[in-house]
């Protein structure tokens, strides 16, 4: 059985090498135009200068096409780059969609290696069938790739929670600055210089966009698009409408701070309600059966003794 597994693995690796070699022979546009792209004052082509040499060059040429195909397959399965780009922006990550897909592939390869490390000794000792070992390896690889996506979702949830938590305080500070006579942009600059956190970073980016030539309305819309937090979207829309129509901005900011606190209070009530139901689980499944057992056990003992 062990020899058959080894032969099958070698045969599969050989077939993969043959497939990659046949695909590499296919004429592409880069291969066609490369002989005509000579760098001035050199005798090398563009591809020769860009491609690494030595063992690293061999590994990149061998693994590169397969790696790019895996990334494209992951993109087709998990969706387009636009939705992923929006999620990365919401998480505040500077990573591009291509880099994130590469990380997913690397995580999947790491999960594959872990699965092989766990499965091969079990198969060699006969404790696990070969089919089950293959399933374990595939599940380990897929789980690792999904774990990277789950980590991004957790980062988004954590950042949006921080934005919603910091919004009432920042809004009150802005209301005080505007009430003292500051302009909207001046109030934003003053508050961002004296605060820290996720929302402060977003407001600093808004101020930078305005200084770069963007209008206040466009910068506020970009802020709402980047965050997608409902309370922050309402905050941006309210400031944009107040600036456009000349509404007293201080009162608008006070109203937004009050609404943000009310929404935070409602969320706390919802969380407490869910926690209350969760707390009933140990009561129903652990404490209540023990209490019933203590109540009926003496009676059962008496009945058994009487019989």
Question: What would your notes on this structure say?
Answer:
It is built from twelve helices and no strands. With 307 residues, the protein is mostly helical. The chain has a domain of 104 residues: Receptor-associated Protein, CATH 1.20.81.
Could you give a short description of this structure?
Helix content is 84%, strand content 0%. It has twelve helices and no strands.
Individual helix count: 12
Gyration radius, in Å: 31 Å
Which regions are unreliable across 5 or more consecutive residues at pLDDT < 50?
39-56
First-to-last CA distance: 61 Å
**What structural category characterises the helix and strand content?**
mainly alpha
**Helix-strand pattern:** HHHHHHHHHHHH
Give the C-level CATH assignment of the domain at 161-264.
Mainly Alpha
**CATH fold annotation of the domain at 161-264:** Receptor-associated Protein
Helix-residue proportion: over 70%
CATH architecture of the domain at 161-264: Up-down Bundle
Shape by Cα distribution? flat
Question: How many strand elements?
Answer: 0
Average of the residue pLDDT scores: 78
- Beta-strand content: under 5%
What is the fold's blueprint, element by element?
Layout lengths: L1 H23 L4 H5 L12 H5 L3 H25 L2 H11 L5 H28 L5 H50 L4 H11 L3 H14 L4 H12 L2 H16 L3 H58 L1
Which descriptors apply to this entry?
mainly alpha; 307 residues; flat; single chain; Receptor-associated Protein
């Amino acid at each position: 059985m062990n020899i058959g597994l080894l032969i099958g693995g070698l045969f599969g690796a050989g077939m993969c090498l043959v497939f990659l070699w046949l695909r590499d022979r296919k004429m592409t546009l880069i291969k066609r135009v490369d002989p005509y792209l000579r760098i001035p004052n050199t005798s090398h082509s563009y591809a020769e200068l860009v491609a690494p040499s030595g063992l690293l060059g061999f590994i990149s040429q061998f693994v590169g096409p397969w790696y790019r195909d895996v990334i494209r397959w992951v993109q087709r399965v998990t969706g387009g780059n636009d939705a992923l780009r929006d999620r990365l922006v919401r998480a505040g990550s500077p990573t591009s969609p291509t880099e994130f897909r590469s990380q997913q592939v690397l995580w999947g390869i790491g999960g594959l290696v872990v699965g092989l490390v766990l499965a091969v000794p079990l198969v060699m000792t006969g404790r696990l069938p070969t089919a089950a070992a293959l399933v374990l390896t595939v599940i380990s690889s897929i789980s690792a790739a999904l774990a990277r996506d789950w980590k991004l979702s957790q980062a988004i949830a954590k950042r949006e929670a921080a934005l919603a938590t910091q919004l009432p305080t920042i809004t009150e500070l802005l209301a005080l600055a505007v009430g003292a006579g500051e302009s909207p942009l001046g109030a934003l600059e003053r508050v961002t210089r004296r605060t820290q956190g996720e929302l402060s970073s977003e407001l600093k980016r808004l101020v930078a966009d305005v200084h770069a030539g963007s209008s206040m309305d466009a910068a506020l819309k970009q802020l709402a698009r980047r965050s997608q937090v409902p309370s922050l979207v309402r905050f941006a829309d309210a400031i944009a409408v107040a600036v456009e129509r000349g509404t007293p901005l201080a009162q608008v900011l006070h109203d937004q701070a009050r609404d943000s606190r009310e929404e935070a209070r409602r969320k706390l009530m919802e969380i407490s309600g869910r926690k209350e139901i969760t707390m009933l689980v140990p009561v129903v499944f652990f404490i209540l059966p023990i209490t019933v057992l203590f109540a009926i056990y003496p009676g059962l003992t008496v009945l058994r003794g009487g019989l």
